[in-house]
Amino acid sequence: MPSVRVCSRTGCLQAAVATLTYAYSDSTAVVGPLAIASEPHSYDLCEHHAMRLTVPKGWEVVRHEGEFGSTEPSGDELTALAEAVREAGRPHGVTAEEESGHQHPAARRGHLRVLPDPVDR
């Protein structure tokens, strides 16, 4: 019998449909589709809390566009979310083309990595 993950917000018993992850080095909060597995440094959110998340002044929110659902995200959705996080982490005024042409002094290596699907193990 599959268990339903609930929202991580205190007192909320709604089913989780989104996952919140913080990229502290980029001052960015990422709200994306519900992760396949619960991770220690991410938070499951219901749709209400995912859509109303606020962050401290100076931080950015990268939010999944569209409806949250209980289906698994496709590879295209994960790639788009990763690109959005990379774009948020770029120095202001530097485009992807400029960054790929030369290493900007403020540019840093991406912090995202691909993890194998737990079903394939």
Structure description:
With 121 residues, this protein is an alpha+beta fold. It has one domain (18-113). Helices cover 21% and strands 17% of the residues. The protein has 3 helices and 4 strands. The protein has a 4-stranded mixed sheet. A hairpin with a 4-residue loop joins strand 1 (18-23) and strand 2. The chain is globular and about 45 Å long.
Number of strands: 4
Q: What count of domains describes the coordinates? A: 1
- Biggest sheet features: 4 strands, mixed
Shape annotation:
globular
> Average pLDDT across residues?
76
Uncertain stretches: none
Series of secondary-structure elements, N-terminal to C-terminal: EEEHEHH
Widest beta sheet: strand line-up = 3-1-2-4
Helix content: 10-25%
**Secondary structure tally, helices:** 3
Radius of gyration: 16 Å
Strand content: 15-25%
The computed structural class is alpha+beta
Distance between the first and last residues' Cα: 21 Å
Attribute tags:
single chain, about 120 residues, alpha+beta, 4-stranded mixed β-sheet, 3 helices, 4 strands
Brief write-up:
By secondary structure, the chain is α+β, with helices and mostly antiparallel strands.
